[in-house]
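Sanity check

After download, print the first record. It should look like this:
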Amino acid sequence: MKLKFLFTVCTILVYFVVSGGPFCSQVDLVDLVLKNQDQVRNFHLKNSQIGFGQFCNKNPFDWINSSYITKIEHEKIRVYLFNEIDSIYEVNYQDLYLMGVDDSHPEKLNILIGQWIFNRNESYMYLISIDSFSGEITSKFKVAELFKHPDQIIIMRSQIKEHIEVITIDKYFEAGEIFCDSIVQIYNEDFNLINKSKFVCDE
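Expected structure tokens:
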């Protein structure tokens, strides 16, 4: 039994050494962020507005053409992030972009990761916290979303003050008319929902 256990442990260690394993990609992720932080937006988490509209002049769906983002090409980092980000699509049907870095806390990096779905109708943005030393992802939270459908458009953005306010503008079309609802969800620093309200919006 002990020999079998030791063999299993050794096999796992050999796999990580040979393949690079997730530990390697965690460290690589920190390295990628630090190397590219001058190419993307620097932001301070507190008192910030986060949304795709900040990366383009008019149509937020054009964010993919922004000069303030960096495509993540490193395959191990892509796989590592895809394993952390919830997605119903295959890895090869989407791209990830580094969009923002907050390095104001020495012990961690807060980064914005944009997710571009190849159907051109969906995009998502995540606020991800990384341990600066180990590269481990300590938290992740969806802060922005774009979704368009023949009958509906959803634009979600966030603003962070003492709490995180996630504002979702939901426009839908019915019998030639446009209707609009706004849902505001407020989260604490641990991303626990503490308040939610819904009202008809003018946007």
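If your output differs, re-run the checksum step. Summary of this record's structure: Confidence is low (pLDDT under 50) at residues 1-22.
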